[in-house]
C-alpha cells in the first residue's frame, strides 16, 4: 500500500510546463503539417478540389 500511495503522490508533481510544451508542440505540428499537405501535390481524386480559405498559399 505504501508503494502505491507514493507512486500516486509523485504522479501529481509532474510539471505543468512539460504538459504545455507537449500540447503546444502537437498543435503546431498538426497545423504546419496540414498547411504543408494542402500545398503539396493533390492526391488522386483531389485535383479539382478547392483549397480551404484558412490555408495560405505558399509559393516555392
Characterization of this structure:
With 60 residues, the protein is mainly α. The protein has two helices and no strands. It has helices at 2-11, 16-39. The chain is elongated, with a radius of gyration of 21 Å. It starts with a helix and ends in a 21-residue tail after the last helix.
The number of helical elements comes to: 2
- What gyration radius follows from the Cα positions, in whole Å? 21 Å
In percent terms, what proportion of residues is strand? under 5%
- Biggest sheet character: none
- Following the backbone from N to C, one meets helices and strands in this order, namely HH
Which features characterize this protein?
mainly alpha, single chain, 60 residues
Short description:
The protein is mainly α. The protein is built from two helices and no strands. The longest helix is centred in the middle third of the chain and has 24 residues, at 16-39.
Topology:
Elements lengths: L1 H10 L4 H24 L21
Amino acid at each position: 500500500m505504501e508503494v502505491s500511495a507514493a507512486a500516486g503522490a509523485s504522479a501529481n508533481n509532474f510539471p505543468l510546463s512539460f504538459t504545455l510544451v507537449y500540447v503546444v508542440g502537437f498543435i503546431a505540428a498538426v497545423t504546419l503539417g496540414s498547411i504543408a499537405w494542402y500545398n503539396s501535390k493533390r492526391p488522386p481524386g483531389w485535383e479539382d478540389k478547392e483549397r480551404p480559405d484558412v490555408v495560405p498559399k505558399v509559393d516555392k
